[in-house]
Amino acid sequence: MNNKKWLILTVSIVINLCIGFAYAWSVFSKPLMVDFGWTASQASMAFTINLFVLPIAMIFAGPLVKRFGVRMVVLLGGVLFGLGLYLSGMITTVYQIYITYGLIAGSGIGLIYSITVSNTVKWFPANKGLAGGLTAGGFGAGSLIFAPLAVQFIAVQGVLGAFQTLGLIFTGVILVLGIFIAAPPVSDIASLATAVATNQSAGNVTTREMLKTPDFYLIWGLMVLGCISGLMIISQASPIGQVMVGLSPEQAAFAVGFIGLANATGRVVWGTVSDKIGRYNTLIGMFALSGAGLVALYFTNDLPLFMVGICLIAASYGGVFGLFPSITADNFGIKYLSMNYGVVMTGLSIGAFIGPQIAAYAVEKSGGSYNLAFIITLGINIAAIILVMFAKQKNAKHQMTLVEN
User: Fold this and answer.
1) Hey, which of 163, 236, 300, 347 would disulfide with 88, CB 3.0 to 4.6 Å?
2) Is residue 329 a contact partner of residue 320, using CB atoms and an 8 Å limit?
3) CA 271, CA 233: separation in Å to the nearest integer?
């Protein structure tokens, strides 16, 4: 079993590297604008739809797993992801790419991400943070690896040809590797879950039961708050660098490349740290460092401080996806983790809307400065720390009650 679980973890990471290519949307955005005459907002909407659909597809992954098993759902996700990219190479209107890249590819990503993360967590119940962080880290690092490859394909084949080639490549890779995906035996899940039961505040809770608990809304709210700062920076890092530091577009693009590295690193590091110091202590550290990054951006007037700021925020944002699978499993068990985590992940959609809107509001109110956005999101991070402390205290009381009983 030990050798098999490490194989499944490795395969899951590589598959997530493939679907993490979705974060390289900016590589395609400008060529599409040039070829079709789209505006920046029209082009970016495809990525927004993709990100919005992702957690919705995660919710459907749970019922599909019950009926078809984890392997078939991953293979289905691979087909949808590759098909969405391939069909994006055949579009003629902006609405078509909303369907192909946004809905179809986004659905494939959601199915795969849900299964790879939740399934590896089940294989490593004693090290949920490490397993979830490594698997989620693959998704975060995908754009770093495949964005340069996409640029080369675009230069040779054009943007539509690049979509088709990459769609075929990713479909092939995921279908081959997906064969190795398997769920741990039911007996192993039960015995391993029992071995670490003292670290969990609840047994195996169905999604319907989870939605009736105050703990879910507390965790979901923390997911929303954890995404706001990160998504604000990811969506606005280049213009922030140009406005606040005076970077050229080329310099800003280079600096933004480090966001992907920090994002991926944060997923692994924070998830691993949480196994050592606890989920809630780790959350406090994440929100504190994200706040420190916002302070750095507020006072920045040079490239080094700008880099420190965006990397701290991106690493803390990445930690959300390395940590929340474990938090969900700790509170609601691992049996229904695929669907439960998908519901928790809907907080990403809310954060994806709020973060960029805060930046837009700040720029409009201040005539081009982002400082108001940094102040607002710093306040959100402080509020999140207070909320985490409340959740930590509530969890401690619950654990004490379990011990007494």
Assistant:
1) 163
2) no
3) 21
Nearest to 324 by CA among 222, 394, 225: 222
Average pLDDT over every residue of 99-109: 96
The token pair at 311 is 């990397």
- φ/ψ region of 368 (left if φ > 0, alpha if ψ in -120 to 50, else beta) reads left
CA 153 – CA 336 distance, rounded (Å): 41
Enumerate residues 6+ apart whose C-beta is below 8 A from 35: 158, 159, 160
In the numeric block, which tokens belong to residue 48? 């927004």
| Tokens at 103, concatenated | 């809905």
Say if residues 144 and 352 touch (Cβ distance below 8 Å): no
* Alpha carbons 376 and 236: distance in angstroms, whole number: 15
| Distance of alpha carbon 337 from alpha carbon 252, whole angstroms | 39
**pTM: predicted TM-score of the whole model, two decimal places:** 0.76
Q: Residue 339: which residues within 8 A CB-CB, separation 6 or more?
A: 58, 59, 61, 62, 63, 207
What the block records as the tokens of 288 is 């504190």
Q: What are φ and ψ of residue 367, in 5° steps?
A: 75, 30
Phi-psi region of 181 (alpha: psi -120 to 50; beta: other; left: phi over 0): beta
Q: Is the predicted pLDDT of residue 50 greater than 70, yes or no?
A: yes
Higher-pLDDT residue of 326, 79 = 79
Q: How far apart are the first and last CA of the chain?
A: 34
Residue 201: which pLDDT band, with cuts at 50, 70 and 90? very low
Q: Distance between CA atoms of 88 and 260, rounded to whole angstroms?
A: 24
Could you tell me which of 382, 336, 247 has the C-alpha nearest to residue 65?
A: 336
Give Dmax over CA atoms of the chain in angstroms.
68
pLDDT in tens, 169-194: 999 999 999 999 999 886 655 555 55
List, for residues 125-153, the tens digit of each pLDDT value: 878 778 888 888 888 788 777 878 888 89
Judge whether 271 and 319 are in contact, CB under 8 Å.
yes
- In angstroms, the CA 297 to CA 350 distance is 24
